[in-house]
């Protein structure tokens, strides 16, 4: 195209006589040619750029598609891995669901998990037990689930009987020896009913209690003991201090617990937890968990029965308009005329307040009689509490070792003046300061709430500010309770009480005082400072319902789910090194073996009938677990064949690369559960609820009904907790509920005062005597209060705490014992008379009947070896 243009340009005529025009024509042709060339190059560049952009877009689309495919592939792999790991997680969880039982073990002691010197601690402890308490049978296993060592304790039947004497266990006596219940004496074992049956005479909780006492009473000898952990770190245990509690205080020993009996526990679940409408099996609870736990559930059942009366009466008052009393104060403040049904509402309010006073008195007296009956049936009625006959608690510290003035056994001695100095000089002031501080904080937050409500309560966007003091108050209650619990335990340890009963009673007193301020402070503030009965009713209803629901959830659902997730997580982590096929095969084998064992239901063999160590035989012969090379304490590699004290067996640490197939035991799982030392929190929860019903139920008549519904559910909740979510507690013989009885009696007196004060707040006195002064109204309320208190104390004095049939049976038992003693004394006298030579024969032989005066001899002290080192006592033997 460019050539044609040039030719056309050349055909144009030009003037030869004008050289300038010819030159311009040539320049125009060249310029046009260059312009055409630039346009063509630009078009080529544009086409190339377009192709490049298209190629780039195609490349980006390809990258995006490849990235999406890669992401999809990764997501699929992640989902598949998650499904596979979830299946492994669920499959490995069957290992703890079908955990092997641990028979022939009464007490389990676990060393601190993942401790660097775990084997050293276990070896040292077993060596001390072998030295100071050789009657104990102990074996050591390595817990792969928690990477710690566990010491399994038991004892022979004979040694358990000796320990029963030291623990003052009460057992039934044969009728021909007087009958009744009596402290067990080993020398008189043939006098007790059922002593010949080894498997039935001592219950599981009694065996565990005896073994626990034997372990805890092992104390450091003169000069103390030293546990050398590292080159520069060692633990010194002073003379007379209990060894195992000292190790627990230092964190070297994690847990000490009795193990559950699966068959008995399963039966108890069916007859107690699942039987909602049936009566509680108190006798079975006592046999399995001990008298202390059984006494709590008996008290809870008795309280539930007693709550039927205020529940029905309060429902009646609610239906007939008894709750409208809160309008009295409003009408008085607004100067509005009283309503027509005001008199009926006032009467309902006063009658309900008086009913509470009478009901609480009758309930407390009824429970005293009921607990006396239970204590007589359980053989703890004549238990001498707080005396020198009780052994000192393991954590009791003394300046020296002195003989007990009653028994003669050596035990720690702590001067009484030190105890009183700590109690009155430190504990009382600190407790009072804490209570006053809590009350001041609570009062300040309530005032802040009222102030914020008056300013921001009607605001559309800032009304939430009025809720901040309430939220802060709830946080203060939670944090303050936890901090004060630790402080109360520290102060109680500092006071150094000798017996477990004294320690627990004074701990209860400290906690109850603080809890009363935090639980009832808001109600007293609303009822007597603000004098707002409507708000008091709403607050009481909110506290009753929310507190009950939240506590029940925290007691059962949260620990149960948490423990199961913990078990599953640990078993999953323990089996990570196993392949899927190996894990599936191992879990199937464990499941089939447990099911076959449950079907076979073979009776267990007692430890005394076994020639080899009981736990070792169970491992090898019954479970078939693979055993690792073991070593003994003090003598590595050489087996010990002593039937009385089998040396422990140590299992090597479990490494993640190990391809062995671990099998969990029930003991390992129970060691991971929460502890349940005493029913203190359960008592406290019911005590606070009893205070709500007794003190402020006239403000909310349905409080009794709410408490009744909660208690019907609370019995099964606490039963579920004991059977499923916590460790089995050690049993302890008790004759009553201890300080809780005195606390409830004080609550009954305070209830009379508060109900009379509420009567004065209702305005009834002012309406009956409108011309009466304010001081006269207070005087009438005080006189009414004194009359009710006098009636309360009269009922307390008139109703005996012990039923007549219990007193008669106690007198019968004492009479039979005296008669049996007289018969035995006459029999021994006759035997001695028949065996001694007659006077005539002595005269014939020339022996004078006048005996020489006996020579004065120094009393001889014989040292007897008892079941525990602390029980070594001196017997004074003076020849008469």
Oligomer: single chain
In total, the number of strands is 12
Give the overall silhouette.
globular
Low-pLDDT residue spans: 1-17, 328-335, 602-659, 838-866, 869-880
- Report the structural category: alpha+beta
The termini sit apart by: 155 Å
Q: Tell me the radius of gyration.
A: 42 Å
Which strand order spans the largest sheet, edge to edge or round the barrel? 2-3-1-8
Mean pLDDT: 76
Give an overview in words.
By secondary structure, this protein is an alpha+beta fold. The chain has a domain at 267-414 and 496-565 and 674-802. 61% of the residues lie in helices and 7% in strands. It is built from 27 helices and 12 strands. The strands form 5 sheets. The protein has a 4-stranded antiparallel sheet. A two-stranded antiparallel ribbon has the order 4-5. Strands 6-7 form a two-stranded antiparallel sheet. Strand 2 and strand 3 form a beta hairpin. Helix 11 (308-319) packs antiparallel against helix 13. The N and C termini lie far apart (155 Å). Residues 1-17, 328-335, 602-659, 838-866 and 869-880 have low confidence and may be disordered. The chain crosses the membrane at residues 296-322, 343-364, 421-441, 461-480, 511-530. Pfam families: Anoctamin. Its main location: membrane. Residues 1-13, 52-61, 833-845 have a biased composition (Basic and acidic residues). It is found in: Membrane.
Which terms summarize this structure?
880 residues; alpha+beta; 4-stranded antiparallel sheet; two-stranded antiparallel sheet; globular; disordered C terminus; chloride channel activity; Anoctamin; transmembrane helix; membrane
